[in-house]
Amino acid sequence: MISMVLKTHAPIDVVFIMLGTNDAKCQFSTNSISLEKGIRTLMYRALNPENYRDGSKLPKFFVVCPPKMNVDGLKNERTVSNFGQAGFDILANTKPYLEKGCSGLNVEVIDTSAVAGSLDGIHMDEKGHKLVADALISMIKEL
């Protein structure tokens, strides 16, 4: 899928890939190893030279850490049943695993320190979205 998106939107200067909180749901049995392997597989596909055969240059890639769960989410029955403490713990510390998965690939991993809102503990509110947007805008301006 990512190959098709890159090919159909070429030329591209910069790509931000952000995992979502749903990646930490219990049903996916996510752990540090699956985060590392999953992002590495995705980046291998994104960096495949076949995606750039038309002469377009390789864009700069950034991987953005998903927002951390809001502790209030542990009070929400649905959130707890979907994520549990394990999901909360995974989202609290994704950067080292994503960095390990991206090592040697010239891909920068960004932790915006975003935290989900208090409504359900997993979805960002306006403040969280603004924090992420401001961080990414800053990264683009530095290019």
Give the helices and strands as they follow along the chain.
Answer: HEHEHHEH
**Number of distinct helices:** 5
Low-confidence stretches: none
Q: What is the number of beta strands? A: 3
**Could you give a short account of the major beta sheet?**
3 strands, parallel
Q: Taking strands numbered 1, 2, ... along the chain, how are they ordered across the largest sheet?
A: 1-2-3
Short note summarizing the structure:
By secondary structure, this protein is mainly alpha-helical. The chain has five helices and three strands; from the N terminus they run αβαβααβα.
Structure, described:
Helix content is 45%, strand content 9%. It is mainly α and 143 residues long. The protein has a 3-stranded parallel beta sheet, with helices on one face. α2 links the parallel β1 (14-18) and β2 (60-64). α2 runs parallel beside α4 (95-102). The mean pLDDT is 90.
